[in-house]
Amino acid sequence: MSLLELIIKALALGRGVLQLEPAIFQAILDNPMTRLVPLTLFLLAGLSDVLGQSVVLFANRVKPGRFVISIIASVIVLAISVFFWAVSIWLIGRFVFNSPQSFTNALRVVVASYAPLLFGLFIFIPYLGNIIFRVLRIWVFLALLVGVQVAYPFNFWQALLCCAFGWVAYELMTRFSALPLDGLSRWWWRVTTGTPEPIDIQARADQIAEQAALFVSRRAKN
């Protein structure tokens, strides 16, 4: 299979995932020989998402070398989140609901569920960036919810518990104000980018959009 064919099949797979079709997840589980297709889909989605969020690096004028390091670090963090989510689903399915499933199948379902991040490139859009970011994450969660119900003999609430555990754990680790992670986040930023403090990219994008609108308005009056 050529690279172009692999990409075309990955995008076709992504279309089914975006539409939350259970049959597309069943096809992933029934055809283990096509494991490169969901992996390619994940790589494309991850690339789009990382590029969308990398605008903050341009806004902070990060040096080229540091830019590459930051991109690689973002990819690693994304891969860790996928692995963690797959592990949590596999463990809950096996030890809580006594429904054994291979870890590989759980991982395939999670990987394919990240298809909504194909639209991650649009995160940089002024005013809408944060909204798009949240919508895409919720979309990923819904896709995973469908995939888990296909992979396991679960009802809706059991599948929701499996998916929510990984989701809640991730949100707590990154957003729970009681945890001392603010300093760690700033340290990570300094290490990967070589700059002291990140600029609020959404605020900067909004400011640029307002300046552009003002410029166009002045030119129109003249």
Structure overview:
- With 222 residues, this protein is mostly helical.
- Helices cover 76% and strands 0% of the residues.
- It is built from ten helices and no strands.
- Helix 6 runs antiparallel to helix 7 (129-151).
- The longest helix has 33 residues, at 64-96.
- The model is unreliable at 176-185 (pLDDT under 50).
Q: Briefly, what is this?
A:
This protein is mainly α and about 220 residues long. Helices cover about 75% and strands about 0% of the residues. About 30% of the residues are buried.
Could you state the order of secondary-structure elements as H and E?
Answer: HHHHHHHHHH
Radius of gyration: 20 Å
β-sheet strand percentage: under 5%
Question: What structural class do you assign from the helix and strand content?
Answer: mainly alpha
Please give the largest β-sheet: none
Number of helices: 10
Provide tags for this entry:
0% strand; globular; mainly alpha; 10 helices; 222 residues
What's the structural blueprint in terms of helices and strands?
Blueprint: H1 3-18, H2 22-30, H3 36-53, H4 55-59, H5 64-96, H6 103-113, H7 129-151, H8 156-175, H9 182-193, H10 201-221
Helix pairs in contact: 1-3, 2-7, 3-5, 3-6, 5-6, 5-8, 6-7, 7-8
